[in-house]
């Protein structure tokens, strides 16, 4: 891909601000953890989604650029945009994920994370490995300056080595002042250049090869200084 096309895919709107995007990122991640704290065993997934929408509205979300996803148990295997199976109840030893895309004023937030209830060791490992894979792939982006395509080739190899299947239908995208889709709405996994910081989110969605659960982690492509720990 030539420089002109790369520049086209990384352009920003008049309202873009690096400082504001970082502030929006912090607000989004705080909302994820607030939502997670209200998800308890015995809750039906549909009720959790409504609860999450209420928390986001109270926090000042004007709209979402994508739906609010709170997925319980077997629904954690679903890909982006796929409807959850109805009536799934969060169990005592269970796993759930949160994926939100709030628009705060003129700027897009986007993030996701996975949480567990109880003490299922394999579910806990799945949650841990989704975040660990995120940071492994981010380190390759940081250190080797590889393309988006190469990032997800690496992610697939690393997920397999850990015993998980990587969902390539969830493979990162642009992030910007709203709407990023006016600039580029394709996947990061198809970008044939080294993506710049602040402009892209990296998504890692893994699934157990046999059991009906998975885990998800999503955040911006940023250097280590923006993470409490890169592990």
Keywords, separated by commas or semicolons:
231 residues, alpha+beta, Creatine Amidinohydrolase, 4-stranded antiparallel beta sheet, 3-stranded antiparallel beta sheet, 5 helices
Explained architecture:
The protein is α+β, with helices and mostly antiparallel strands and 231 residues long. It has a single domain (3-226), classed as Creatine Amidinohydrolase (Alpha-Beta Complex). 34% of the residues lie in helices and 19% in strands. It has five helices and ten strands. The protein has helices spanning 3-9, 18-37, 45-58, 121-144, 148-161, and strands at residues 63-64, 69-72, 94-100, 102-104, 107-108, 111-117, 165-166, 173-174, 200-207, 214-220. Strands 7, 8, 9 and 10 form a four-stranded antiparallel beta sheet that branches. It has a three-stranded antiparallel beta sheet with strand order 1-4-5, covered by helices on one side. A three-stranded antiparallel beta sheet has the order 2-3-6, sandwiched between helices. A hairpin with a 6-residue loop joins strand 9 and strand 10 (214-220). It is globular and about 50 Å long. It starts with a helix and ends in an 11-residue tail after the last strand. The mean pLDDT is 91.
């Amino acid at each position: 891909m030539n420089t002109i096309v790369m520049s086209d895919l990384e352009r920003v709107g008049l309202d873009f601000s690096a400082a504001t995007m970082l502030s929006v990122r912090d607000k989004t991640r705080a909302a994820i953890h607030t939502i997670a704290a209200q998800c308890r065993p015995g809750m039906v997934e549909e009720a959790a989604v409504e609860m999450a929408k209420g928390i986001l509205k109270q926090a000042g979300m004007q709209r979402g650029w994508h739906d609010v996803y709170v997925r319980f148990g077997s629904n954690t295997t679903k890909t982006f945009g796929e409807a959850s199976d109805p009536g799934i109840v969060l169990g005592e030893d269970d796993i759930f994920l949160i994926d939100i895309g709030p628009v705060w004023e003129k700027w897009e937030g986007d993030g996701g994370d996975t949480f567990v209830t109880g003490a299922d060791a394999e579910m806990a490992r799945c949650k841990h490995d989704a975040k660990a894979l995120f940071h492994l792939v981010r380190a390759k982006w940081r250190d080797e300056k590889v393309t988006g395509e190469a990032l997800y080739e690496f992610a697939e190899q690393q997920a397999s080595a850990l015993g998980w299947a990587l969902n390539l239908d969830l493979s990162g995208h642009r992030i910007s002042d709203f709407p990023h889709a006016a600039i580029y709405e394709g996947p990061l996994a198809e970008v044939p250049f080294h993506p710049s910081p602040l402009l892209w989110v990296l998504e890692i969605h893994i699934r157990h090869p046999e059991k009906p659960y998975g885990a998800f982690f999503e955040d911006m492509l940023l250097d280590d200084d923006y993470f409490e720990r890169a592990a």
